[in-house]
Amino acid sequence: MCCDLKRRFLLLYATQKGQAKAIAEEIRQQAGAHGLEADMHCISEMDKYNLETEKDPVVIVISTTGTGDPPDTARKFVNKIQDTTLPPDHFAHLQYGLLGLGDSEYTFFCNGGKTVDRRLQELGAQHFYNTGLADDCVGLELVVDPWIDGLWCALKEALLLRKENEGMSSDVDAVSGSLSAAPHIVHELNLSSEVQNLKLEDEGVKSSDVLTQKLVDINLVASAGDTEPSLVRSVPPVSQSALNIPALPPEYIEVQFQGTHGEDPHLSSLISEGTTFEVPVTKAVQLTSKDAIKTALLLELDIQDTVFDYQPGDAFCVICPNNVNEVEELLQILGLSEKEECFVCVKVKQGTKKKGATHPQHIPERSTLKFILTWCLEIRAIPKKAFLRALVECTSDAGEKRRLQELCSRQGATDYTRFIRESNVCLLDLLHAFPSCKPSLNLLIEHLPKLQARSYSVSSSNLYQPGKLCFVFNIVEFPACPTRPVSRKGVCTGWLAELVAPLLHPSKNILDTKGGSPSTEKISIFARPNNTFHLPADPSVPFMMVGPGTGISPFIGFLQHRQKLREERTDWEFGETWLFFGCRHQDRDYLFKQFLLPFRDELRCFLENGTLTHLKVCFSRDSTTTEVAPPKYVQDVIRLYAKEVARVLLKERGYFYVCGDKKHIADGVSDAVVDIISMEMEVDKLEAMKILATLREAKRYLQDVWS
């Protein structure tokens, strides 16, 4: 370890999409101002650290993925510490603080961090600092920022305590002196002559390593008649406040433009999660009518020439590009349109002040500029405050500069949440709103995250359709709003819809297989197995499925698989199956229904051949003339069959599957099940919730949900 052992702490991060790593890098960057050195590693790099012998404090930043799982990079670590042969004092020497990242839209909030935290405690490790749980649903920074602010004092006390315990009194004095005299560094703002009314107060850097600014002339930002704030305009008290602004992140990437000769890397080189497969799209079907509120498509992929394998209930990922028009627009704004085909060499900047700066893994060392913006960077990402802080230095207009400072400041936290985060503002939106902002390419590479592959549930069975993989999705729509003047489609769903447009028959919405030639369009995919959302291992066990809208997708695979098993295993006993389905209108978005699929009424076939025992449906927007209004939502239908739900779940030890939107579906369904348990077992609601939790733990109440 190269760090000064008297001031060192071990910093571990476990990330799925890069957020935990970015926060760990921020901690490492701030550590220097507090007289500390962070020895930072990905938690998967177990050859570079050893918790069994670690004497210094340990800081862990860990995210959560899937249905409460630790990120892929932490699986090996988690498996190791969950070894049941480890004694209860295995980590009795360890002092640690943990910051968990999660999303309260999901049931198992921050479960990755909670799992590690709980196990370390069981093995004797002690907290030197309270665990923080940050919620991406409301903004990670609401917990992350104050947690980091309080970390330094806790680290100082932990280091002093360790030295005292070791009897190193002389070193205690040295460490105490170096920490209490943490340098009061003033990070200068490069204010142009146009911003003379912004005065930098020389108060030094406080515990959060911030800048303090005072606005002298508020007329720059808002006129007296402006009473409502917006993305580009502030009002009092923010417009009149002295601002606590994050320290300017040091630049660390250097780009060099080269010629146009060469080839871009293969897409597989961008993926570290597993083997990628380039497969043709052989069929596309629109499952909804033209006048439906949402457009749902089913795509069929040909995987017969690959070793790609899956089970019903699994998910897989599609490698998708950014929208070509948005890439061209961004190139134009940056003044780089003429260089889009030029190769770019990306290196770490020599002499950078960023500690531990490394080449971003998702950026090829050499590729064209267009390739980087199309396949590597998430240009739709919501800009983080550190990015806004960096954009301040690229903005020439005084009013625009001030507003960007406000949006990244603590005083402007509410405005950031309202006009950036909740409005899904991206870099392009900012560049339109602040036209004097002209960031460099290296700044984009430093601050824009990796373009993530998109995950979809499998809607087929390899046993039923060998060599085929189907999936269903709604084309995501983002309507125009004050902060985003243009409407957009989802990055992946919009691309897929455009890609398969030639396959969609203009009148029948199905592929005309008799006439045209087969599709040559291909997409790159890789497996994302689901370890739990599978059919019961015992086919005699009954199960219930709740899948409104496109949530029905994995259950089509379940039923296809069950039908094939029934055909092949006539001597087996099969349990009953229930499907609760809901949509807005019976004649517009009843997926897998005959009026839209004349060649295959899948649900009716499952009912007729006995694969599906019970099908219960509801339509939330259809009018009715009956005296008693039918149930609108699947949770209402489930309540009508309370005794059957209780019988399957509690008496027959069956399984209960839910797939759909977390906020509007999964929560409502779980509330209905709790009510049913409470009523049928004659227990109070708290006890019913405990019983449901037990079912979750037993993997008999399973969810595949999204926010």
From TrEMBL:
InterPro entries in alphabetical order: CysJ-like_FAD-binding, FAD-bd_FR_type, Flavdoxin-like, Flavodoxin/NO_synth, Flavoprot_Pyr_Nucl_cyt_Rdtase, Flavoprotein-like_sf, FNR_nucleotide-bd, NADPH_Cyt_P450_Rdtase_alpha
Protein name, UniProt field: Methionine synthase reductase
SUPFAM superfamilies hit by this protein: Ferredoxin reductase-like, C-terminal NADP-linked domain, Flavoproteins, Riboflavin synthase domain-like
Pfam (any one): Flavodoxin_1
Single GO cellular component term: cytosol
PROSITE patterns: FAD_FR, FLAVODOXIN_LIKE
Protein EC: 1.16.1.8
EC primary class: oxidoreductase
Places the protein is found: Cytoplasm
Gene3D superfamilies the record matches: 3.40.50.360, NADPH-cytochrome p450 Reductase, Chain A, domain 3, Nucleotide-binding domain of ferredoxin-NADP reductase (FNR) module, Translation factors
Listed GO biological process terms: cobalamin metabolic process; folic acid metabolic process; homocysteine metabolic process; methionine biosynthetic process
MF terms in GO: [methionine synthase] reductase (NADPH) activity; flavin adenine dinucleotide binding; FMN binding
Keywords carried by this UniProt record: Amino-acid biosynthesis, Cytoplasm, FAD, Flavoprotein, FMN, Methionine biosynthesis, NADP, Oxidoreductase, Phosphoprotein, S-adenosyl-L-methionine
Domain Flavodoxin-like: 9-152
Catalytic activity: 2 cob(II)alamin + A + 2 H2O + 2 H(+) = 2 aquacob(III)alamin + AH2
